[in-house]
Design a protein that fits this description.
By secondary structure, the protein is α+β, with helices and mostly antiparallel strands. Helices cover about 15% and strands about 30% of the residues. It has four helices and 13 strands. Strands 1, 6, 7, 8, 9, 10 and 13 form a seven-stranded antiparallel beta sheet that branches. It has a six-stranded antiparallel beta sheet with strand order 2-3-4-5-11-12, with no helix packed on it. A hairpin with a 2-residue loop joins strand 2 and strand 3. The longest helix has 20 residues.
Length: about 300
């Protein structure tokens, strides 16, 4: 087929645009896994701000007891498994819905002006070595060996209605045998007035987690300094359904309070109401939904 000069120009322009976006992705935050053209990523360059890419997984991935062979990389900053999604209106976790969701940064993303979304899978090589080392560092009691990794990256993407903003984040799915993990990595993240949220949720919200501070767009830049594994900009979670899912130590957290009478809490079921409300507050502040609360009376004695 013979192309007109205009058609040839458009093809060249699109090729240059694609090469420019992929090449720019090579400069990455230190906490990021390899991505972009240097990693041979599949790049999704969309002229729209709402798009999903189906990824057929090379290995099964277990997420809280459910095994998946595919995932959708949704442009608005999250992964789903059963169906694609273009939702930009954030539903705060726990949703109590019918979908498992992994959301490194769920917000209204617009890549029509700047930024790329890319992904790559690995079943051998240095990335598996890196994943094995990282997981054994964060979960030292497991003696883990990674056999498969998926890296999905949102590199310098813009927020909708915030042209010119640049936000970079990444999610890494890691599998080995029956064990599954996710890493959420953060580079520079711009302030946004759009709704935003980072964490994960499960079917019927039997397990969920919200990264503390991630629901406030004005403090989103702090994500690059936050962590639950002492690595600034990285959050690590075990997600196959085994113990210690949120990689949080089993500490006993004390809440000291003064009441006019201990019977105020123990009578008429008030203690159950108090503990339920306190649990909701703690979960909203980032503790796992499985947190258990008990009330103990401490009697002050005179010396």
């Amino acid at each position: 087929m013979r192309l007109s000069p205009v058609s040839r120009y458009l093809l060249v322009f699109i090729s240059v645009l694609s090469l420019s976006r992929v090449t720019n992705a090579q400069t990455a935050p230190a906490v990021f896994y390899p991505f972009g053209s240097v990693a041979g990523d599949t790049v999704n360059i969309s002229v729209e701000d709402e798009n999903s890419t189906l990824v057929d997984l090379w290995r099964p991935f277990v997420f809280f007891g459910r095994t998946y062979n595919k995932t959708y990389v949704n442009s608005n900053g999250y992964l789903t498994f059963n169906q694609s999604s273009s939702e930009f209106f954030i539903q705060n976790f726990p949703i109590n819905g019918s979908e498992d969701i992994i959301a490194p940064l769920w917000t209204d993303v617009d890549v029509s002006m700047n930024g790329i979304i890319s992904y790559q899978q690995y079943s051998y090589g240095s990335v598996l070595t890196q994943a094995t080392r990282d997981i054994n560092q964060y979960f030292p009691d497991l003696s883990f060996t990674a056999t498969w990794v998926l890296v999905a990256t949102w590199d310098r993407v813009a927020y909708y209605y915030h042209s010119g903003t640049e936000t970079s984040f990444q999610v890494v799915l890691i599998s080995g045998g029956d064990l599954s993990f996710i890493l959420m990595n953060y580079g520079d993240c711009a302030v946004t007035y759009n709704a935003v949220q980072a964490g994960y949720d499960t079917v019927n919200s039997t397990a969920y987690f919200v990264i503390p501070g991630s629901t406030n767009g004005s403090v989103i830049p702090n994500l690059m300094n936050s962590s639950n594994v002492s690595v600034p900009g990285r959050w690590a979670f075990r997600v196959d359904g085994g113990p210690h899912q949120n990689n949080l130590p089993e500490n006993i957290i004390g809440v000291q309070m003064r009441v006019t009478s201990f019977s105020d809490l123990t009578e008429n079921g008030n203690i159950e109401i108090f503990l339920e409300k306190l649990q909701q507050e703690l979960v909203e502040s980032g503790l796992p939904s499985s947190v258990k609360l008990n009330l103990r009376k401490i009697q002050k004695t005179q010396p």
